[in-house]
Amino acid sequence: MRAELERLRAAATAEIAAAESADAIEAIRVQYLGRKGSLNTVLRGLGQLPAEERPAMGALANAVKDDVSAALDAKAVALAQASLERALREERIDVTLPARRRPRGHLHPLRQTEDDLVDVFVSMGFSVAEGPQVEDEFHNFGGLNFPPDHPARDAQDTFFLDGSDLLLRTHTSPVQLRVMRTTPAPIRVVIPGTCYRRDDPDPTHSPMFQQIEGLLIDDRVTFADLKGVLTAFARRFFGPETALRFRASFFPFTEPSAEVDVSCIKCPPAAPRPGCRICKGSGWLEVLGAGMVHPNVLRAGGHDPERVRGFAFGMGIDRLTLLRHDLDDLRLLYDNDLRFLAQF
Questions:
Q1: Residue 265 above 90 pLDDT?
Q2: Which end of the chain is more exposed for a tag (fewer CB within 10 A), N or C?
Q3: Parent domain of 16
């Protein structure tokens, strides 16, 4: 039996040394140390030995088992280390390659236009004011000289909240009133923001739109000051050759009032093109409304119209964005199609 145990040790050691994979090591373990392996087959014969030989043979059998187990473990570790070194050598990652970056977003074209407009007026000394988008009737209509029977107060034109006099503001003018009621003259503010009206979406209308308004109040303000501010704005925003045209109009909150046109960005008023898609051959583009603040509005804002005067103006950021980018459908700006917005 001694000779058989030594033969098993030598054979197992030789096979382990020649093994080249983890699967081969596992097969050797089963062959020699498994329940039906060679070593257990030899150990079953211990009962046939004389009693005095059994302790020595048992000790030898355990020693052979320990040697084979240790050799198997050592070989498994060596094979794993060799596999790791081979992988590191053959499967190297080039860490110098640039990583895949997530694309960065940018401001929506409406916000870009709004920021540029604000920059123009801030450079002229205006500050920026904001206010709530849910307003009451006084700030949205009554305090701005809208009579009780004005069509804008009709539910067909305005989003009213059920059971109250609250509504989604139809213009940013309520903020003018809020500023006047909390700030002494002189006042010089621009007010950008979102407004709401009951319009069906089409190429030129949206139930939600962006607007910017301006307000200046002081003791010596004239229509000439209004014209100077708007001329400086138009030439900064549309180009230094831009011409302005003022046409008499009516707004409840200003008197006198005017519609303000700028020369077409595609063809000049002196030589308009009959087929121009932008100005329809007129050479002019209507871009904003303006006028001197009505005395009733000054009073509602807590100012004495005998001591101070002011002017106000307002324009649609949506329309200016369409003109700036030569677009013909307002809905493009609200569809949130990244294929379109990524162009800006």
A1: no
A2: C
A3: 2-90
